[in-house]
Amino acid sequence: MRIAGLLASVVLLVLVCVASIAFGAKSMPLSDVWHGLFDSDGVGNDVIVREVRVPRTLLGLLAGAALGLAGAVMQALTRNPLAEPGLLGVNAGASAAVVSAISFLGVTSLTGYVWFAFLGAAVVSALVYVLGGSRAANPVRLALAGTAATAALYGYINAVQLLDSAALDKLRFWTVGSLASADMETIAKVAPFIGVGVVLALLLGRPLNALEMGDDTARALGANLGRTRVLSMVCVTLLCGAATAACGPIVFVGLMIPHLVRAITGPDMRWIMPYAAVLAPVLLLGADVIGRLVTRPAELQVGIVTALIGGPVFIQLVRRKRMAKL
């Protein structure tokens, strides 16, 4: 059943990728899409297909998988069903570091963005985790710490952008999250980091299963708690840092997908991870396609669409958690 569901998810992902390439802000016949993919002349619609839609789809695949896996790892690590990189300040930390690098250090290349994004993600994720209760990872304190860090960091980001018009022009898409700036150079630079993070996340399935049962049970099962926590934070930093450097902070993907996956697979992280890696890009690319179609010929950024979808889902999860305590 789980294997069949995973195969069905892969088929769904392929269909969404086809839709991402076939449909966009500019309407074009499917014959032109086919020509651009397999018999390109390098002019007209062929350029849009090859140089805009294909890189955009590939970046959506990478960023979606990164955010879905990061959310699953963070929820297991903190034993908090509301944990998500965007909600816990990880994406905000990466964005704040990138803004600082551009405004104060004159960094202009994506390679520089990536390293600063990693640094910001690592510092904020460690800070929020410590403030949230460290070993106990108290859900309430963790959520409060993440909310406070996110608010403070986005206040800082907005202040820097208002004071530096050049930074505002360069970083406007970061404030909402977008796949619109995708190109093959960007993909080539972030893909190795996301690849390492994906492999690490898949390898952490078994120890995270033990960690979710509580520290005492995990120790009894032979899990190395310190190593698991450190590797998990490295994993989240790699995935979120690379995804944020490439397309800005996109929230709620890492929150919604693990909950959807658990309804299919149960609590086993060894199955949650591959499902999340497949279904999160489905959500991200699907939201991107919706954003391109609903406001033609303009575009609604994917970060706005995921927020519109994820906001009600988050409220429902909070209500369900509160009701379960009554």
UniProtKB/TrEMBL annotation:
GO terms for biological process: siderophore-iron import into cell. InterPro entries: ABC_BtuC-like, ABC_transptr_permease_BtuC. Belongs to the binding-protein-dependent transport system permease family. FecCD subfamily. Pfam families: FecCD. CDD domains: TM_ABC_iron-siderophores_like. Keywords: Cell membrane, Membrane, Transmembrane, Transmembrane helix, Transport. This is Iron ABC transporter permease. One of its GO terms (molecular function) is transmembrane transporter activity. SUPFAM superfamilies: ABC transporter involved in vitamin B12 uptake, BtuC (SSF81345). The keyword Cell division does not apply. It comes from Streptomyces inusitatus. One of its GO terms (cellular component) is plasma membrane. The chain crosses the membrane at residues 57-74, 86-107, 113-132, 190-210, 230-260, 272-294, 300-318.
